[in-house]
Amino acid sequence: MSADYLDKTHFAASVAAAMKQSGRNKVLVFVHGFNNRFDDAVYRFAQIVHDSKVPVVPVLFTWPSRGELRLRAYTYDRESANFSRDALDNLLSTLDASSAVGEVYLLAHSMGNWIALEALRTRAIRAPAVASKRSKLKNVMLVAPDVDVDVFRSQLNRMSGARPPISLFVSRDDGALSLSKTIWGDVARLGDIDPTQEPYRTELARDRIDVYDLTKLAVAGDDAHDRAFEQVGPVVAMIRQRMAQGQALGEQKAAAGPLARLAE
């Protein structure tokens, strides 16, 4: 594996060339989580794209995680995540400006969700008309988000109508998020809530957030924090089933699921 530096102009040209060569106009941006170095993130993203078989041009947004499973590394990574918010905003703006790009999908995992949500919040504050009307961002997929529930409510409120559709993937047996909850003073994390319980059920339905509870996909010895990626097949099947049933949380009509739309 090798890496070359590309400035914004050459990056945009590279994406356009990849789209022309593949005949695809959809981009999937992946934001990795805590304790993921560059090579780990590349491997995981390649596996996600391969296993899900989605016809996209993959773009990895990698940020400076220390790549260590320690408390001090956790706090270092959180500061690195804060540092990286504007860079993701710039990436999404670059893709918006590319005439070769038709649709953009954003997939974030664990602490990477903090970067994703903060970038969306920034976009909504800076240019709400662009964020809501001219953005090519079609869906944001939040997988096991290590985000304070109350902060998430605040972020959604600030985005208001200038946010793309959001899909939330939770696991109520996520040990990593349970530990994070302890670190943050026993405050609920978005990725391990029970979406059938109040006030979450009402709030998520009101905000039209599609929720996929992966707890039922648990198998002996698996890692709930990575379940959505380790069991891509069942996850995609779950979304397709939700589409066929036409039901979303709160008995609302569901739009096509994010990975299912990508696979079309």
Automatic annotation (TrEMBL):
MF term (GO), any: hydrolase activity
Keyword Phosphoprotein: no
InterPro entries recorded: AB_hydrolase_fold, DUF900_hydrolase, UCP033909
Signal sequence annotation: none
Domain of life: Bacteria
Nucleotide-binding recorded as keyword: no
One protein family per Pfam: DUF900
UniProt keywords, alphabetically: Hydrolase
Protein name: Alpha/beta fold hydrolase
